[in-house]
């Protein structure tokens, strides 16, 4: 790590209910030895006070383009030139739209145009807003210009809805900021990463299906990490609570056979294939064409085994290609994972526990271990899924050396 004692972060705070979390972000950055220049938009000032940020950072807060101040160094061009990183946390749909379309109508949006420093956005908004094509289009445009994103997470939002849109936790935002400040290389630049994510829905009839509890959160975290490291990312996703992040090529499927076809078509072009989806092991052998009515006699299903997607990729992998699987287990974790690693001809497998409240389907954290084909086992502590994704790519890149 390089020293951060001389580094400066411009912390842009916009008008989201998550604005109060920016105080913790500022505090964590200061503790890391970073100089923080806080910038509060007019809307943010309705939610948090400039004095709080000034007390935390020891620096005057910028509250407007024409705010009276005797310190001329606060001019937007001077700060834009001096900054090592622009961090906008929380980032509302409004600031994302301004940045994407070059609108400069306040201090923050103007200086985002003037700076050549890296820009990191931590979005926070209602889940329907976040999923709107306009917002996703703006995020995609900003990613295409080299801007970085962290989050958002899923959960209960301030509006009482449940979904994606909650700003990433302050410690996670700061971790991402420090990675950019310490010049983490784009170590996946030029690489193509293919990821499977989510569940499968195997139809019983036009109404009912066989499924599982996969949320897609792990696949989302892996895709985000790959994007941040500069990779071209393709996500083949089944039904999930969480959509893949903007900036990915997204291929949507329902069944395991559809997922298998999509993966096998794209796998030869991928440098890294990661099977994070919870693929359905079985499907109904003869799904009905019409909804089956109750008849008081019960229902017996004849199940047919689905293709093992990651095993097929492993069997056909090309020289230099790295194939990674997941083993979601409730018992004998390492033994079962090691057997799958060998049987499926994988380079690496992530063995994760799914039978505890803090680790498994739908959780924000995961307890896992990495096993590779040489027999090495790296047990990980309980981590946020994004942190596990970062550790996973570190381990993948070590294999490739």
Give descriptors for this structure.
13 helices; five-stranded parallel beta sheet; about 30% helix; about 400 residues
Question: How would the blueprint of this fold be written?
Answer:
Layout: E1 8-13, H1 21-31, E2 35-40, H2 50-57, H3 76-82, E3 85-91, H4 93-101, H5 107-114, E4 119-123, H6 127-131, H7 133-144, E5 148-149, E6 153-156, E7 162-166, H8 170-181, E8 192-197, E9 202-203, E10 209-210, H9 217-228, E11 232-237, E12 249-252, H10 256-266, E13 272-275, E14 282-284, E15 303-305, H11 309-316, E16 322-329, H12 333-343, E17 348-353, E18 365-366, E19 368-372, E20 377-379, E21 383-384, H13 385-399
Parallel strand pairs: 1-2, 1-3, 3-4, 4-5, 8-11, 8-13, 11-12, 13-16, 16-17
Antiparallel strand pairs: 6-7, 9-10, 14-15, 17-19, 18-21, 19-20
Helix pairs in contact: 1-2, 1-8, 3-5, 4-7, 9-13
